[in-house]
Amino acid sequence: MKGALTNVPITKEWDIVGARQSGRNMARDLGFGSVDQARIATAISELARNIYLYAGSGEVSFEEVQGEAPVGIKIIASDNGPGIKDITKVMEDGYSTSGGLGAGLPGVKRLMDDFDMESNEEGTKITIVKWLR
Amino acid sequence: MSSLKADIGNYKKLLEEYMKTKDEAVLYQAEQFSKSSIQKNISPDEIVNVHYQAIQELIPNLDDEVKESFNFLIETMISYGLAYQEYQVLREKQIELRTEIDVAANMQNTLLSTTVPDVQNIDIGAKSIPARQMNGDYFHFVQDDEGNIGTAIADVIGKGIPAAFFMSMIKYAMESFPEDRMYPKVILELLNRVVERNVETGMFVTMFYGLYDIHRHEFYYATAGHEPGFIYRAEEDQFEEIDAKGLLLGVKKNVKYNQYVNEINNGDMIVLLTDGVTECRSGDRFIESDEVLDVIRKYKDLSSQEIVENVYKYLERLQDFTLRDDFTLIVIKRNS
């Protein structure tokens, strides 16, 4: 199971549910409690919805990792969309949520332990990790 | 009443005590717990989770369906938790911003400060209060080497920080003018050039400039679209509107302004104001300028400063102590 990689392609809104489900299953199998499962699922939702809304299509992948803690879940959301021009801006509290869009990327960062993002004209890749403590 | 610390670790004990006793005192501790959790930035989903963990221990044979319902509840609370944390951050930011604006407002007060001239037989009162922290109104006094009093009163179309920036520019332009006797029309023409060159379209300022000749008691003035002032004529016990016309500053290049002159007799008062005085509203009703003039007349025997203070108090109260526009009022009274 260690190192096992699951990919969920995101092309339609329904795929967001699939991504949540895969992420939650893996989180549960790794031993995360219900609050952490809910947080991980919410973070996945947010990333998958961003792909669906702004890039059109992409994928979310899940991976078991080791590092700061013996067990963690790493989630990578990637797309070939137009990219995010001003990353600092979207990471600002109140920027994306003021329109009622949901947690926004700052929310995703809060839900998880690690957060990293790369974005250019060819697409965006967001990597998040939650450690089991 | 036990005194458990309002700590998340004690939630189970509190809950247990409540289930046993149904005591109001424990509910009071629950209230303390909730306040302390807010202070510690504990989000709602965590509280729900602590409750869930606690009842699983307190009720060992808890129904599976109930357990599942808690998972469902936690799920729905996650976004609330995020919104709550974001709210905390935004609140801190807001406090920071407000502090910064306060500093800027203090700076503006220093930058735009002016001294009311102290001249024999002429009593001057002036008051300017911003509707928000930063003032978009401005008044200024200068005295030339013969003691004549120049006075400017201005209002930027707009409020707040942009208006305040704009005003600082006007003030410094005026500071750069020579100190010898300068007539109102010349000053407005020079200022119009400064504003027209330096400010993007869509920002305008109205200004009234007057020069009081203290030896001949003549009042020279010109206006750049500013709210008309009034002269109180003591002999008739009546106000006459100061009649003047002129284009706002910054609308176009090379504007020529007309200059007017009026004699000021003993006991007469010159009243200069901004539209925050005359266009103030009480509920749905606009206050007529006659109403303001009545207040001035009522207090006409007080000092000029007391008159402006009284008018301000009157209008402040009428508007339920919330100014909708910056307020500036100047009274210049000839005493003998």
TrEMBL record, chain A:
<protein>
    <submittedName>
        <fullName>Anti-sigma regulatory factor</fullName>
    </submittedName>
</protein>
<dbReference type="InterPro" id="IPR036890">
    <property type="entry name" value="HATPase_C_sf"/>
</dbReference>
<feature type="domain" description="Histidine kinase/HSP90-like ATPase">
    <location>
        <begin position="35"/>
        <end position="133"/>
    </location>
</feature>
<dbReference type="Pfam" id="PF02518">
    <property type="entry name" value="HATPase_c"/>
</dbReference>
<dbReference type="InterPro" id="IPR003594">
    <property type="entry name" value="HATPase_dom"/>
</dbReference>
TrEMBL record, chain B:
<feature type="coiled-coil region">
    <location>
        <begin position="1"/>
        <end position="31"/>
    </location>
</feature>
<dbReference type="InterPro" id="IPR052016">
    <property type="entry name" value="Bact_Sigma-Reg"/>
</dbReference>
<keyword id="KW-0378">Hydrolase</keyword>
<keyword id="KW-0175">Coiled coil</keyword>
<dbReference type="InterPro" id="IPR017944">
    <property type="entry name" value="KaiA/RbsU_helical_domain_sf"/>
</dbReference>
<dbReference type="InterPro" id="IPR001932">
    <property type="entry name" value="PPM-type_phosphatase-like_dom"/>
</dbReference>
<protein>
    <submittedName>
        <fullName>Phosphoserine phosphatase</fullName>
    </submittedName>
</protein>
<feature type="domain" description="PPM-type phosphatase">
    <location>
        <begin position="123"/>
        <end position="334"/>
    </location>
</feature>
<dbReference type="GO" id="GO:0016791">
    <property type="term" value="F:phosphatase activity"/>
</dbReference>
<dbReference type="InterPro" id="IPR014787">
    <property type="entry name" value="PSer_Pase_RsbU_N"/>
</dbReference>
<dbReference type="Pfam" id="PF07228">
    <property type="entry name" value="SpoIIE"/>
</dbReference>
<dbReference type="InterPro" id="IPR036457">
    <property type="entry name" value="PPM-type-like_dom_sf"/>
</dbReference>
<dbReference type="Pfam" id="PF08673">
    <property type="entry name" value="RsbU_N"/>
</dbReference>
